[in-house]
Each structure stands twice: as C-alpha cells, then as structure tokens.
Amino acid sequence: MSVFELEKGLFFQTYRRLGVHIKRGEGVYLIDSEGRKYLDMIAGIGVNALGYGNEKVKKAMVDQIEKYIHLSNLFVQEPQIELANLLVQLSGYKKVFFTNSGAEAIETAIKLTRKWGRKFGKVEIIAFSNSFHGRTMGALSLMDKVKYRDGYEPFLPEILIARYNDVEDIEKKVSHKTAGVFLEFIQGEGGIVPADEKFVKKIFELRDEFNFLVVADEIQSGLWRTGKFFAFEHYNVKPDIIALAKPLGGGLPLGAVLGNEKVVDVFTTGAHGSTFGGNPVACSAGYAVIKEIQNGIVDNVKYIGNYLQEKLLMLKEKYRGLVKDVRGIGLMVGVELSVECFDVVNRLIAKGIIVNCTSNNVIRLLPPLIIEKEHVDLFIEKFDEVLNEIKQ
Ligand SMILES: *Cc1c(COP(=O)(O)O)cnc(C)c1O
Q1: Which residues are registered as beta bridge partners of 29?
Q2: 103 in a labelled binding site
Q3: Residue ranges, CATH 3.40.640.10, the chain
Q4: Which residue among 11, 167, 230, 248 sits deepest, i.e. has the most Cβ atoms within 10 Å of its Cβ?
Q5: Is any ligand 1 atom within 6 A of the Cβ of residue 101?
Q6: pLDDT tens digit string along 323-358?
Q7: Which residue, by CA, sits nearest to atom 6 of ligand 1?
Q8: 186 close to ligand 1 (CB < 6 Angstrom)
Q9: CATH homologous superfamily for 3-53+296-391?
Q10: Burial 374-392 (b: 16+ CB within 10 A, else e)
Q11: 199 annotated to bind ligand
Q12: Would you say the CB of residue 192 lies under 6 angstroms from ligand 1?
C-alpha cells in the first residue's frame, strides 16, 4: 500500500495532503521518495524560517538533548531563560509565557485579557472578520469563517466580530465593556491581507479612549517574516500582548506570549500553566534561530521580498484578469487569482515548486527567509508557465 492509502485508512481526514512523499529537506529544497527536488515556497507554513538543515539550530538541539530533553516547569531551565531574555531584550516587552503552539498562545492571551479586564469590570473581546487564530475552542471563538467553526457551537460568550479594515465598524463595537482587541496586522490564512494604516490608527486611538488591551497575533507574521521583528512595527504602534509561534522553535513545537507593563501582574502562581510549554530543546533551537536571522538574514528578507513582489507584479501585468492582486510585506506574500488555486498548486508541484493555496484563490508564499534571487527566478519562471497553461 502507498503512504497515501495508508494515510486515508489511519487518520481522521482533516488535512488536504499534497501528492508528494517527501523524504528529506536540504536548504530551500525538499526531496521526494524518487529523488525529485522541489523548491519550497511555503516552508512548513512559515515554520522553517532557515530552511532545512541549519547547522547552528541542529547543534543547539543536540547539545540540549544531551543534557535533558524535558524537566517540567517544576524547575527553572536555562534554555527557557536564555530565550525569554532574548525576546524581552529584542521586543522591550516585560514578561513571557511559553506554550507549545500558536493556538495555545492565543488561549493564553484570551485568559490574560479576561483576567486583566476583570479588574475594570470588562469582559468583552473584539476580533475581526476573516481572521485566523487557531483551532481550539477559544481561538475559534475569535473567528467568523464558517469553514472553521461549523458544528462546534456554542463558543465563548462576550465576543464580538468587527469587520477587518472597517474603521466605522470597530468604532461602533468598542465600548467601556471592551477588555481586548485581537488583531493580525497582516492576515495570513485569510489570504495575506495587510491592515490599513488608518484602521490600525483608529484601534489605538480607541484604546487610549476606552482602556482595553490590543493583542497582536504575530504567530505567522512575527520573527522578521515581514522584514521587521513584528509586523506591527510597520505601523508604529505598540500592542499590549503579542502571540508568537510558527518559526519560534526552529521546527519544534513552541509558542510564546509577551506582555507589557499593564499585564505583568495578572497571572499569579497556579493561574496558568503547561506541562510541555517551553520545552528546553525547542527553546535552545529558538535561541539559535533568532541569532541566525539577526546575523545578516533580516536584510535578505527586505531585499528578496521586494524582488519577489516586483517580479510578481510583472506577472500581474502579463496575466491581467487571471492575477487579480499581489499583496504582502517582506516574505509574506499573496497572489490572488480569479480562479480557485488548488489546480495551480498541483501544476506547480509537477514543475518542482511547492506553494500553498489559502482562502480558495490566494497563492500564499512564505518561503524560507534564506531564499536567494536565483530561487525567486526559478519560481517566477515556473509560475509564469502555469499561469500560461491556465489562461488557455
Ligand atoms: C498558524 C496560526 C495560528 C495557530 O497556530 P497553531 O500552532 O496551528 O495552533 C494562529 N494564528 C495565526 C495568525 C496563525 O498563522
């Protein structure tokens, strides 16, 4: 039996798997069971920021494995302290809580927001249309897409969904009851949609007026994906809470929540916790990932991000009507098509390129941050061919 047949028999069929059987990764490439090479333009959905096989990250993992793989949070652990210290220094935020995933970071942020709000008699949380915050019941409660929520009702109470990038709607929904606003500064799963400047400005004006927390979901957009440490830095604002995950553990499961001075005292002993949260091997890897990106890769993100978007805009000109929009910041880029994109994904795979299709018609690109010009050229060449095939 093929691995594809085995998968069908064994698993709840929640995932739409690609029809390739990957055996290993090498730099920005994946290699399948027949030795075919694929340029990876999605990088484990934004996790593999340094591609495959980074020596420093591997060494950090192995060194820690030799000391201990797990201790539990009954103990203070050096790898946690080192990574937390680095995050605090880089961000200017005050406190850290480590989780195992993005959704758990969101859960942590929901609990932090609710408990903070309680002091002021506020419980309401506002989140936005078309957003994605994860698959747990708390995270789903912040979302409005039927595809993710159908059948799981009832959700958390006292949550309002305002329209993303709609200044009037957020103005209408915020009140003295608002404890927090959860926001992706650039929606990922939702089709790579950056927040408008005046929309963000309005949210922060309302925060000053009504005293609530702004929670930035930087799980996909954080850690220099957009060329800056956090996507919100492009807007010159400072949220109160930040959720991180995807690339944070160098491929191991790791998330984090950072909080500013407003929330430093909200969680007390026993008020929150996690058995695996802040796994020391994952934290060691995370420290190495951040150091590696800082060490010359940040400029690459800006340079290659611009280059990629320039080339895509040329394709937009060439295939007017088929390519509706090219959007994004840095190496978080979306290409909106006028057709469903699953077929495009498969055609690109046949040509040795892995991309992702999100929101039905948006080709999402989250390549490793180490990608070079020649890789972008290869991708553009094959994408051009596929668009030409589809146009027929
Ligand atoms: C992936 C993602 C999450 C959920 O993270 P998981 O690790 O899958 O739980 C939440 N928010 C955003 C913006 C994401 O991209």
Answers
A1: 26, 39
A2: yes
A3: 55-291
A4: 248
A5: yes
A6: 999 999 999 999 999 999 999 999 999 999 999 999
A7: 102
A8: no
A9: Aspartate Aminotransferase, domain 1 (3.90.1150.10)
A10: ebbebbbebbeebbeeeee
A11: no
A12: no
